[in-house]
Amino acid sequence: MKFQPLFNDNELAKRLRELRGDSCIAPDVSIVIPVNAQGDLENVLNVISDLAHYEGSNRLEFVLVVNNYPPASPPDAIHRFLKLGIRALGIPDVRSPGYAIVLSARMPGIRAAESEAIVMFDSDCRIPHPTELINWYVDQFRNGAGVVYSAVCHYDVAPAFSVYVRLAIHHGSRWVKRSLLGIPTTRGSNYGIRRTPMLEMFERKLLADDLNIGPVFKAEGHKVVYSGNACLDVYTSGRMFEPGWGHMIPYFWYRFKYNLRTLPVRPDVALRTGREKDGVRRYHDNRPVH
Questions:
Q1: Which residues have CB under 8 Å from 274's CB, separation 6+?
Q2: Which secondary-structure segment (H or E) carries 140?
Q3: What domains can be seen in the chain, in order of their start residue?
Q4: pLDDT for res 250
Q5: Alpha-carbon span 239 to 287, nearest angstrom
Q6: Is the CB of residue 136 less than 8 Å from the CB of residue 227?
Q7: Residues 106 and 120 sit within 8 Å (Cβ to Cβ)
């Protein structure tokens, strides 16, 4: 897959100002991205550069939530993001017991966003067709959708048969959930929500992870829209898929049990996820450090 060419900092700052337009007018869409300071401070500029190639008429706002760093040593990248014209929130630790850390990292950005239409990506994403994707998201929200999402593919995948099998099972299970069981398969690399109901449902303790956002919105009567159009695909790094067969069965067994605990729509779902002991994720050369 060929991605958009990258802007340098001066070009990117100019382009982001153009995309935001008049700051006195609310943006048409807010793009919220959590940034793990232990490995994604450079990666996030790739996805922002991809989105900066947007050529539509909608006004875009970018909100980053930089997290996972010592309180006394905020990363210099925060100042770089601000100079580029990006709203960058620095929060050393976003952890909250029982909540998936990525959802905890998204929430400050959602609260700070100026648009009711919010699209969320991860900092290791790449977006081949930003104009088509963003226009589609905005159109769906204008047509009354509460949750919107499209397909997530992978790049930078280790060339190993065990990894290919794991990805096939991963995508196959998502198809079964979405197409046969009617369960929305929202995931953090690529989905959008309406801000007000998202905040309200979070306060009611109905949300604990990206994967249960779609089911909760659906249960609450909101319109959920999915598209498998390849032009709307978003790519996320395959860096977490390490070669080897030994951990595959334990991993999928864990994911199966986790889905059973997290997908049912009920209050205090965070008490059932078992994520209180999640480790801190660190990356070196875009690979996980154990």
A1: 98, 258, 261
A2: helix 130-142
A3: 9-272 (3.90.550.10)
A4: 87
A5: 6
A6: yes
A7: yes
